[in-house]
Amino acid sequence: MSGSTPARDGSKRPDGSDYTTVLSEDQWQEKLTPDEYHVLRQAGTEPAFQGEFTDEKRSGSYSCRACSAELFTSDTKFDSRCGWPSFYEPLAKDSVVYLEDTSMGRTRTEVRCAACGGHLGHVFEGEGFETPTDLRYCINSISVNFDTP
Ligand SMILES: [Zn+2]
Predict the structure, then answer these.
(1) Å from CA of 64 to ligand 1 middle
(2) Domain, as residue range, for 65
(3) Which of 39, 46, 78, 88 has the least C-beta neighbours within 10 A?
(4) CA dist., res. 56 & res. 113, Å (int)
């Protein structure tokens, strides 16, 4: 996690570089369902305990629903009972990017796909889960696709 405070302009990565997949908002709206668009492009949150992958326990990989970049694997998924799929680390350090999110009156760290900038969820640290990182990547099911090997 970085401690920087990047601009919240979604057109570029927090470090100022361009996303690999760049579409106009019209193109995203065409490609995604209204619910997917709301979460991925407008940083919405799906209702707790209703996402399709919250209790998914099979082995497989999770990729971005907007651009298909691989983001997480089942190896790092754990049962946090928080109502959303939870992972203790992304597939690779550069799979995701982080933005400071001060909405809702508190500071949280937003997690986005590093390839297209799609909103995935938030990451929380120091909650005491017995995982190797003590991080909880709280990810919307609707932001990802799940594939079994
Ligand atoms: Zn993506």
Answers:
(1) 5
(2) 25-147
(3) 78
(4) 21
Q: How far is the CA of 41 from the centre of ligand 1 (A)?
A: 10
Please count the structural domains in the chain. 1
For 60-83, write each residue's pLDDT tens digit. Answer: 999 999 999 999 999 999 999 999
| CATH number for the domain harbouring residue 98 | 2.170.150.20
Least confident of 10-24, 25-39, 88-102, 117-131: 10-24
Tell me which long-range contacts 119-122 makes (C-beta under 8 A, separation of at least 24).
119/39, 119/40, 119/41, 119/42, 119/43, 119/44, 119/143, 120/64, 120/71, 120/96, 120/144, 121/45, 121/84
Q: If pLDDT is split at 50, 70 and 90, which confidence band does 9 have?
A: low
